[in-house]
Amino acid sequence: MQMSTSGVEISTGNWGTTRRGETAHLIKLVSPHLIAHVSDYGCIVQSLLVRDPSGNWLDVALGFDTLAEYEASSPYFGATVGRVANRIAGAKFELDGVTHRLAETPDAVPSMRHLHGGPDGFDKRVWNTKILPRGLEFTLVSPDGDQGYPGELTATCRILIEDTTLRFEFEAETSAPTHVNLCHHGYFNLAGHGVGTTAGHELILHAERFLPVDAALIPTGDLAPVEGTCFDFRQGRTLSWPIEPNHGQLQLTRGHDHTWVLGGEPGALHHAATLTSPEGTAMQVHTTEPGIQYYDGNSLMPGLVGKGGAIYQPHQGICLETQHFPDSPNQPDFPSTRLNPGERYSSITEYRFS
After folding, report:
1. pLDDT tens-digit profile of 297-327?
2. Is the pTM of this model over 0.90?
3. Of 37, 114, 179, 185, which residue is the catalytic one?
4. I want to staple 296 with a disulfide (CB 3.0 to 4.6 A). Which of 49, 59, 236, 256 is the partner?
């Protein structure tokens, strides 16, 4: 056990051996307001305990008990995804006149063949770990050509606790022009990860526009107004299912699984979303990113066994993924995900609990 001067206790334990033969660890961060278990495998937040309105500890993050379960069947529970989060059309992009073909998942449906950095993305790697006063710093070197991406990329993920805030700091540098878009892919249920669906939660998204998608779930390039649609969360919506199944976009995605366009000054932290449970536990999301993907968990496998034997089902947890827009490498009108040598990619997201 290590106690830092910031009041965060940090302890490390062996979590098993990966299929590659690497040792993975589960690291416990304890503060008066938050307790997190974080792994160097995929920078996964395996559990996140917050204080409920009565002051009791409550685990609000979906996940598994064992490393083997994450390797076998995880839908990116709590992981850091990259090099490029979300989908890239046709699993390819052109950069400086050169077409780069990206790794694809065999037998996957077209919209899933290159997702979250590829079938062997950053969520499936063991990162190097450094203990910091308030948390952890993970680093990963992704070689040139990794999953089809050009350039050797050195990525950094810091996971820090500040009072009631879980903070993610992402950075990256490259040896050649490439694309990068790192993201935390947590599934949240503020009533507790094992108690049922997130029905009854209220969600606010501070966004006036969203990105419609085509049949392959790739953004069309339009920035559509949310006004007058089921995509308008500006005043808050109470989550329930099914949701307006006659809406064309929801017929494509079988629920909300879209990116909302955030305002605010580029590079500055801005308030993107607030999620509140029926019992009153609240989480604010603040980010420097231009978009937030709200995924309502509709594709979670019914009967999936999670932590402590909890039986998960569709909508058990929701994702609020702060990121650049999907398919940005192929859409020049979107904020760019290009990173050049000598530049530093930087992104910050905070999950603030009350």
Report:
1. 999 999 999 999 999 999 999 999 999 999 9
2. yes
3. 185
4. 256
185 among known catalytic residues: yes
Query: CATH number, domain at 127?
Result: 2.70.98.10
Catalytic residue (choose from 289, 321, 324, 350): 321
Number of domains in the chain: 1
Structural domain span for residue 342: 2-353
